[in-house]
Amino acid sequence: MTINTTQGPSGSVVIIGAGTQGRRLAFMWSGRGGSVCLVDLQKQQLQDGLSYVNQLRNAAVDHDKNWGEVTVAHPDSLESALRDAWLVVECVPENWALKQKVITQLDDLAPAHTIIASNSSSYGISEIIEGLNLKHKNRILSAHCYWPPETSAIEIMGHQDTDPAAISLLLDQCRAHGFSPFHVKKDSIGYIYNRIWAAIKRETLLALSEGVCTPREIDAIFRDVLKTPKGPCEQMDVVGLDVVLDIENHYADSRAGIPVEPREYLQNMIQSGRLGVKNGEGFYNYGKETTDNSNVMSTPNL
Ligand SMILES: NC(=O)c1ccc[n+]([C@@H]2O[C@H](COP(=O)([O-])OP(=O)(O)OC[C@H]3O[C@@H](n4cnc5c(N)ncnc54)[C@H](O)[C@@H]3O)[C@@H](O)[C@H]2O)c1
């Protein structure tokens, strides 16, 4: 792989998966005149993705409206979509085997200079490429974003053989496209923000398991001291306690010294039917079962 860092990359950005994240990334990467190709197995997702990009464009303020073209494609025509790509980002569902399959396919089909990024939240790039037979693994990295454009943070993390030029090019281009990029400088289980948040969740659950305080007290003191809109228990309810447990299990499987009590505490809550906002009961009672979280998320029923 040869990466030219003296001038900006030419070519398009290809995004695999037009779901929640893919369509937001299509908006971001087409926001400075560059073209984007959204790829998805489902035609409906591609149509909805395009509408969503237009919705975000209509809502954008203080923007020079230098929008690039966004096209769509089925994975059957992936090879031609990748032909002039400088970057391809996979945004397919969070499934390790699927990630491995897609990354292998991208490495096989994309030109040698194309940077290949994974947006996976829980699998770092080293875990994804483990055991894979890749042609150009030095252009593969993680590029994990949060909720662009509202939350612009993106964390870039390579594996031990990632070309530093690929990382610095991507950091520069992220900055130029309205992201706030952060470089995770070592291979890490969890990104920078996720690790801090994991520690907060873990210590919250430990304090609760010891009977030190109540969820209401933890949230109240957290909000008061840090001036955040939500406390850790409220936020865990929004994420879903089953999802919180999956994430904590992943840390416990990968690292020594993670206490068991927080996971046991979560397990007990889940076994008693408390999953958080999504089923109406978690640390707090949200009244009734709901599939539309939008109102409850912003104003938990305390
Ligand atoms: N949702 C979030 O808030 C969030 C935040 C940060 C990172 N992520 C990560 O982003 C990734 C995607 O999450 P999401 O929430 O956008 O998922 P999603 O389920 O909303 O979208 C995934 C899309 O991928 C498509 N897809 C599945 N297999 C495909 C394939 N082989 N080729 C092309 N398209 C395929 C699906 O049809 C779907 O449209 C996950 O790895 C997740 O961890 C999500």
Topology, pairings included?
Elements: E1 12-16, H1 20-29, E2 36-39, H2 43-59, E3 70-73, H3 78-82, E4 85-90, H4 96-109, E5 115-118, H5 125-129, E6 140-147, E7 151-158, H6 164-176, E8 180-184, H7 192-209, H8 215-226, H9 232-239, H10 241-254, H11 261-271, H12 294-298
Helix pairs in contact: 1-2, 7-11, 10-11
This protein binds nicotinamide-adenine-dinucleotide.
Nicotinamide-adenine-dinucleotide (NAD) binds next to α1 and β6.
How does this structure look, described?
This protein is of the alpha/beta class. The chain has two domains: 12-184, 3-Layer(aba) Sandwich (Rossmann fold); 195-279, N-(1-d-carboxylethyl)-l-norvaline Dehydrogenase, domain 2 (Orthogonal Bundle), CATH 1.10.1040. The protein is built from twelve helices and eight strands. The chain has helices at 20-29, 43-59, 78-82, 96-109, 125-129, 164-176, 192-209, 215-226, 232-239, 241-254, 261-271, 294-298; strands at residues 12-16, 36-39, 70-73, 85-90, 115-118, 140-147, 151-158, 180-184. The chain has an eight-stranded mixed beta sheet with strand order 3-2-1-4-5-6-7-8, sandwiched between helices. Helix 1 (20-29) packs across helix 2 (43-59) and helix 10 (241-254) runs antiparallel to helix 11 (261-271). The protein starts with 11 loop residues before the first strand and ends with a helix. The structure holds nicotinamide-adenine-dinucleotide. Residues 16-22, 39-42, 45, 75, 91-94, 102, 119-121, 144-145 line the site of nicotinamide-adenine-dinucleotide.
